[in-house]
Amino acid sequence: MGVLRAEPARMGAASRAVGSAWKAFDWQLTVYALMLMTFGLVMAYSNSVHDGVSPLSWGTTFTRGLMWAAIAIVAFTLATAFDYKWLKTFAWPLYGVNIGLLLLSLAIGDGVGNSSRWITFPVIGLQFQFSEIAKILMIIVLARYLSAGEAKLDSLSTILGACLLTAPIVVLVMLQPDLGTSLVLVAILAGMLFMSGASLRWLAVLAAAAVACVPLAWNFILHDYQKARLISFLDPTSDPQGSGYHLLQSQIAVASGSFLGKGLTNGTQAQLDFLPVQSTDFVFAILAEELGFLGALVVFALFAALLWRILSSAWRARDPFGTMVGAGMAAMILFQLTVNVGMVIGIMPITGIPLPFITHGGASLISLAVGLGILQSINIRQARAEW
Amino acid sequence: MNDALLPNDAARSRRPMRFLAFGVAVVLVVGALTTRLVFLQIQQAPAYEALAEANRTTTVAIPSTRGVIYDRAGRQLVQNVPTWSVKIRPADLPYSQRDAIVARLAELLELTPAEVNLRIESNPGSRFDLVRIKNDVPESIARIIAEERLKLPGVEVIVESRRDYMYGSLLSQVIGFTGAVDPGQLADLQAKGYLPDDLLGKAGVESQYETQLRGVYGEQQVERDATGRTIRVLQTASEPKPGDSLVLSIDLKEQRYAQKALEWGLKAAGVRRGVFAVMNPQTGEILALVSLPTYDDNLFAKGISDKDFQRLMQDKDTPFLNHAIAEQYPPGSTYKLVTGSGALADGKLTRTSTVLSKPYVQIGPDKYWDWNHAGWGPLNIIEGLGHSSDTFFYQVSQMLGIERLAYWARQFGFGAKSGIDLPGEVPGLVPTNQWKQDTFGQGIFPGETLQAGIGQGYDVATPLQVLNAYAALANGGRLYQPQVVREIVAADGTVVRGFQKKLIRKLNVKSVHLETMRLAARRVTTIRHTYNVVDMPIVVSGKTGTAEFGVRDKEGRLPYHNWYVGYVSRSGDVTKPDSQLAFVAFVYGANTVGNAATEIAKYYLQLHFGIEKDYRIPSLLVRGNFYGD
Known about the structure:
heterodimer, A: mainly alpha, two-stranded antiparallel ribbon, disordered N terminus, disordered C terminus, B: alpha+beta, Penicillin-binding protein 2a (Domain 2), 2 domains, 21 helices, 35% helix
């Protein structure tokens, strides 16, 4: 398994094939992603307006968002240019790096309350959440593992192997504690196993086992605030000023947006601080309040289109590794979309899961950019082989 | 799709059904989210818009400026000073942070968290109404709380105006104080525009003239943020109308003299409870009204501590009561004015007819003694009152009978509230056969009629009633309603209500008979029943009283109050009803060898008239050795 071996890179041929390669580059995928990112920037602008300083001055959510967007575009370009096959070669060292980064986060990270989710870079003062990068690294590692072990996919051992690979990462993320991201990791695992063709029977058995573990998790793993969030999701009126407050206020924000919205920067729920942490996990509530049903529908359409393009890339990939990377990306984005928006509109419990592209956060955006870049890298290199 | 174009080995890794399933999942998810959005944003939008609007806007009252209070010479007695209050809007207090917020607030306000919680819980209004946590917070603390606003959601620092009672305990019994709305009253008061955290007059003229002093609150719609901070005013529905100010009939200078005299006398006599009141008999205006012991009304303005409140509440000399109007005592010999006037008016006596005073009057086996246990022989009404002969008045009472006695008592204002513009007045009691029948199931005994004629037995009256009866004597027979507020003046200076005398009744006594009683009241002085009052360079008429009350000691003796009520002749001709100064002094349970009330009155008169010579006789204030100790 973990043996380094040189792939037939055929670097010399690359420059000759650039023209045809760009034909295989999925422009639609890139445009949808850029449009979603633009929505995120627009919301960042809106949320920066009421801070009392110009949204354009340094340090506001908006200018930080612009900077992260620029970095994300660079990261996307680099990932596209980079021959993804090296990732297969370096998958196992990357797994080690992943664990190392998460241990580092636990050791020196900081965050709200007693958590240690972010690492603050000393010079530029920016915070970075490595658990976001962990998701992409996990996708690469699982893709490498599942594409290599394809023949035995019906067997339980392959499935268990994938679970065992994922488990240390999930545990490290949960220790931060970051329940949301660990759930995303589990969703990526499930999505990739499903798309790899793993035995549905065994997957069902595993799912049943996981459900059976819920009472255990309730008693031994979940923190009190996490339990409170789940309880208030089931009965938001049980504590309208406490945990239920977010749920209620975010639904008020969404619903009062009505069809056309109140207009950018005009959302009273956000601008008057009724909706806490509106600039992060609840940003969709503000989007729905200010841009209305129409704006939310456009965002949904963009997500659907993007997922379609990702799945197409996965389908087109000749290399099973490519298919698996696409499956992982799609699973990740779909899961985060479902849970984040579901939370905002009151059909999912509150978990700290960001909405891809739109929630303001550098790590999330860059890991998405890198993931999509890898997918493009697969696209153009598959295409060259095909035609 | 492109399936056909792809080589077989690649197809092996792809599961079309799984791709299809995934695609379906995407469609289902987006469909479900869209459906929910349709429900929220299209179907439920109006309801939630209202919620967002309710979040955003709120109606707040604009308090009006409370009217201030002046004395009759225009000296300001009460002013409004800015003060910081800390309040909490329970609805904005996040449940999860409540303990931390309460703890921090308690630390800053020097309260215990339990006290803060108690105040939040005892909030009379809804969760959305502000609850007063502490008044009169120092500016430095107020600033800290304001700066920590984000850490203290739901907590508000509000600049309010607080009452500053510039003379504190000197006038507390007249002015009173303002206090928080009682939960029980809230429903009634809210209909009148009061807020749950409002202040309203609780005692004195602050309470009596609440409506005038308060003015009318304005109303405005404001936009607020999640912490309750007002962002901007959307519209002002109505402007506040400032309250009217009061001009008291009280003269600050007279009040000071009265307090000084009473404090001195009570201290010298070793007691704490007493009254000194001064009135203009021609108008019913109260010029001074002192009731001791009392309290400092600034304690309430600043938010009284539990300790202070309990100390005052448990004081057996009831500092919260205005003893001049809210408590009733046997009037003793001062009541002989009623008996004498009634007998003259009913023709039972003339100015010259005599009654034989004796050591005692016997009814059945009971002997009713004169106070000197000897009598003075035959006395006319003037000498009878001059000596304050009990046996004289026992016999006059018998001539009148209990019903006529009660009639004349009522004429002089006994047994009914005087109607003074202060809260808490009690009516006193004038016994009749009917009353005794209703209360005890039997009629008045003959001996009780004797006692009723000298202000003992069932007779009880407030010091103000006693004063008002003598004021009617002094002014020639007009019983006026006593008043402490002369004028009500609007904020712009216009007089809303000027002073008007309020006549209760013209006494049904011929003026010649009242003239006889004025001669008798002067005789009390000239006969030296009041020691050296006659030597003073003013013409004082009046009557003392030594009223027994309570429980007999081992030797069968009763404790007693001291009274002295009188007036000063303006012209010096005591037959003329021209007095402009009537007074009453009352010392509760004095038990002094001489009449403590007389000494207090002398001291007041010296101060009032600027008499250099001191007529006080401190030896009379020695505690008599015949009760208690």
